[in-house]
């Protein structure tokens, strides 16, 4: 199972907003540059996050995006569910049918994934990785760069 790039870029954007919380907004162009994604795509992601009440947009010279709550109050699950159709990994996640063996498997997996994602907040990411920042490597470079970073 692979999450879409919306979740990957959206979590990076939220991490950057958490780094700047509460003092300043971060412009879409700054997010675009820092995350290395197109402006249109980051705007789409930020609209989805705003629609779920995770971020807010402010107009004006010093405008941009900011978190709507403290980083300790926003879970990684909040971000992922906002960008991944509520993280429903199979059609039968919301089914009440108790006679479906495969549905029981998917519901258990769904519950486990959400438990892990909800156990982490943007603040815990800051606490563990604030000095590191977000990965900017593209898919071709990622394995090489990130592997060398760990060594």
The pLDDT mean sits at 86
The helix/strand series, from N terminus to C terminus, equals: HHHEEHHHH
CATH architecture: Orthogonal Bundle
Query: Structural class, please?
Result: mainly alpha
* Count of DSSP strands: 2
Task: Provide the gyration radius in Å.
Answer: 17 Å
| Low-confidence region ranges | 142-147
- Overall geometry comes to elongated
Distance between the termini: 27 Å
Structure in a nutshell:
This protein has 7 helices and 2 strands; from the N terminus they run αααββαααα. The chain is mainly alpha-helical and 151 residues long.
Description:
The protein is mainly α. The chain has a single domain (5-87, 121-150), classed as Winged helix-like DNA-binding domain superfamily/Winged helix DNA-binding domain (Arc Repressor Mutant, subunit A, Orthogonal Bundle), CATH 1.10.10.10. The chain has 7 helices and 2 strands; from the N terminus they run αααββαααα. It has helices at residues 5-19, 28-35, 39-51, 76-83, 101-118, 122-129, 139-150, and strands at residues 55-58, 64-67. The protein has a two-stranded antiparallel sheet. A hairpin with a 5-residue loop joins strand 1 and strand 2 (64-67). Helix 1 packs across helix 4 and helix 4 (76-83) packs across helix 5 (101-118). The longest helix has 18 residues, at 101-118. The radius of gyration is 17 Å and the shape is elongated. Mean pLDDT is 86; it is low at 142-147.
Task: Name some characteristics of this structure.
Arc Repressor Mutant, subunit A; mainly alpha; 151 residues; 2 strands
């Amino acid at each position: 199972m692979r999450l879409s790039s919306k979740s990957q870029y959206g979590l990076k954007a939220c991490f950057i907003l958490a780094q700047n919380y509460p003092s300043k907004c971060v412009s879409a162009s700054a997010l675009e540059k820092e995350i290395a994604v197109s402006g249109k795509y980051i705007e789409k992601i930020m609209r989805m996050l705003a629609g779920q009440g995770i971020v807010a947009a402010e107009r004006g010279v010093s405008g941009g995006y900011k978190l709507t709550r403290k980083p300790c109050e926003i879970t990684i699950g909040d971000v992922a569910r906002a960008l991944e159709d509520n993280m429903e990994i199979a059609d039968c996640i919301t089914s009440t049918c108790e006679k479906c063996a495969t549905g029981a498997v998917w519901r258990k997996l769904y519950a486990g994934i959400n438990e892990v994602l909800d156990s982490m907040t943007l603040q815990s990411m800051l606490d563990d990785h604030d000095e590191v920042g977000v990965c900017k490597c593209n898919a071709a470079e990622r394995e090489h760069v990130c592997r060398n970073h760990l060594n």
